[in-house]
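Give me structure tokens for this 427-residue protein.
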Amino acid sequence: MANDYTNTGEHYLPVPAITDKFSYSRDIADLRKLLSKGMTATAAFDSNADNFLLAAGNAGTLISSADTAPRGRVASITADTDATLLFQDYDGAALTDKWVIGYDDSSGAFAIHDAATIPADVTTARVHMTATDFHISTGDSGATANGAADDLVVENSGDGGISILVPDADIAIIYMGGVTDATSAGILMNVNTSAMTVGTKVGGGSLALQSGDSATALTLDSSQDATFAGSVYLGTTASGDYSDELVVTGTTSAAIALQNTGASAPVFYIDAVRTGAGQNNGQILFRWDNTGICNIFCATGTDTVNKDDGELHFQTASAGSLLTQMRIDTNGAMHLRAITSDPSVRTNTASIYAKGGAAEMWVQDEAANATQISPHDADGRWFFHSYSSLLDTTLIIHMEKIIRFLVDEGIIPADMLEETPGRVTGD
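Here you go.
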């Protein structure tokens, strides 16, 4: 190790042959002399770390696979007062600066950069490490990482990313946790099954998704219940006046299905806390291009204390105005809204309806034959009223007058005509 290979001011370390013997006690003193060529004050360095010294005044130390074909060198940069090492490439004719490794004493950062010197702003180096953060950069993005999440920063001047790659049979994993539970939450990708899992891994854990300015949009609690803060659109964003609703959209079909695969029936609940009688307690509104045309709603009953009665309303619209056409009250009676004329006929259809100012009950068949089944005329007397579309003739028989005539003439017994004031129920 006493050989001193010198070439244009550089000091070469020969690569010993396999058969060479190296003895620390014999050669270390010569090795130290070799590495400290040109150093004027060796004693100024810590004696606990001066076995191998690079002279500050040297051009560098050559690292080569052969003396005749050097491939690069590590050189101290005298222009920088910080501890810095330069990697250069030798192509047989000239040396080219490639990478620099250094310590910036002003910021306490260790840096690696693809240039001759560490950048003046050490945070822009390709690799920048301090006691509190680790920064990898392939380009300046112009952004600054949030102080709460700058332990590891990956930066690029264009598109950037981090890849976690594993064999096809394995799982790519990111875990988050603390001292008590190091795997409290995680992101897992099973490459073999193409299944991705995002969530918590601790009892009582919940998962929240935020949008806007840190506003929680969806919360999944530890019971796997989901709470949405706004509207839920299944398919595409709906048009029209929809807010705080579940909206299912589609260009070919849109459906909501309730299916119970067990032995019990599925239930669709509509619940509200109304305070008065006759108030809309929930509805199913049908729209045609955002215009309401049909509606089914439940109205609260009269017992506002127990809140245990109600009635059902069925509405249809004409010219955009919804009107209740049928109502089923708390006793189960069906009430029909009176119309002004007989309805139009439809194939294989018979109609039952209320008509006129007195809302008399009528029936009509497919042939438009209409018969009044609440037999009272305008004076409240019993009669039979029927229209024949085939004959285009209306037959009106005053049943009360006929019975009175038959009784008066003695044709039928008088007890067949019984008149009792007020309403009589039963037989």
